[in-house]
């Protein structure tokens, strides 16, 4: 359960940074199409993790974490696109990408552990 708490905290902190990124993109770059996409996927990661915590079954928990994992992959895509389009500076990109990848690793680990424990 400690890993889930760390995951929830990291995903919430990441969502806050995504909200700030959205503000930057809209105000400074006047970019609204990709900013809408990344705010949806980037904040959905933590929302689904929060939902998973209160899942009605192990299968529900796993399903919500899988959704979070898919949202993490989508967010990673939008971050890479923003960087390749020169919409965000390299240092901001690298910081957000590192956080995104860390959340992804924790999600994968949690899913593996949960599935292994379900099979026992």
Quantity of strands, as a count: 0
Instruction: Give the DSSP E fraction (strand runs of 2 or more residues).
Output: under 5%
Largest sheet: none
The end-to-end span amounts to: 18 Å
What structural class should be given to the helix and strand makeup? mainly alpha
Helix content: over 70%
Number of helices: 4
Shape: elongated
Q: Provide the succession of SSEs.
A: HHHH
Averaging pLDDT over every residue, what do you get?
Answer: 95
Radius of gyration, CA atoms, in whole angstroms: 15 Å
Low-confidence stretches: none
Structure notes:
The chain is mostly helical. It is built from 4 helices and no strands.
Which helices and strands, and how do they pair?
Elements: H1 2-27, H2 33-53, H3 58-84, H4 90-119
Helix pairs in contact: 1-2, 1-4, 2-3, 3-4
Short précis:
The chain has 120 residues and is mostly helical. 87% of the residues lie in helices and 0% in strands. The radius of gyration is 15 Å and the shape is elongated.
